[in-house]
Amino acid sequence: MILPEALFFDMDGVIIDTEKDGHRVAFNAAFKEFGFPVFWDVDYYGDLLKISGGKERMRHHLHTKGFGRDVSPDEVDDLILELHKCKTEIFIDLIEGGNLKLRPGIHRLMQEANDLGVPICICTTATQKSADAVASHSLPDIRFSHILAGDIVARKKPAPDIYALALEKTAKGPSRCIVVEDSRNGMLAGASAGIPVVVTTSIYTKDEDFDKAKLVVSCLGDDHGERGTIIAGSHVHGYDGVLSLPMLGTLI
User: Fold this and answer.
1) Which residue out of 10, 17, 161, 222 is catalytically annotated?
2) Using 50, 70 and 90 to split pLDDT, how confident is the model at 71?
3) Catalytic: 43?
4) According to CATH, where is 3.40.50.1000 located in the chain?
5) Nearest Cα to 10, choosing from 189, 204, 229?
């Protein structure tokens, strides 16, 4: 039985469907708290997700649409940081309140990896506080080798930096690991690092081009819950809607 030597998970949209009912809600609450008449609806936020990083999305909105009142160039950097800090605190409250649920199959696959001694890393553009909150409150019984988040690398996805760092931290070769992502930017980051990528599509990414993914599924699947379907990619022997660690091993 061949197993991956490490699993690298994106967080938003992969571990939890955080985007629509988590980050978007938190951004809107932060704008309101700061007195900005800005509201990101579901469709517009989907467009913003083409930009990696929350601070980068706010900066893009400010430059293209404005915040409803004048913001001087000298204010921009500090304002974005303060808004993002506020948004992160609101998002963590949502996580700690149990308002956001794990995606199907995430806990099962991570527990399987723990049981078989396969290292797990979270690799996300979200803040370290947000990633730590998801790990501690949503996956308290899962052991993570590393939680790599936020600005820990200079370039965000689709650059491969965060996955290159995960390889360095785990001392593993890229071809023997698996990246689990939900977006084209994430897929490109993993593939550019030389790592086979499995995509679990989300509401915002289901129509994206995943041409460099080894496998695209609707979700990882649970034995006694929602099962996944293969959308594109490799044939997986024995697949019945639940993607196991040995099945991932056939992709490397």
Assistant:
1) 10
2) confident
3) no
4) 6-16+101-249
5) 189
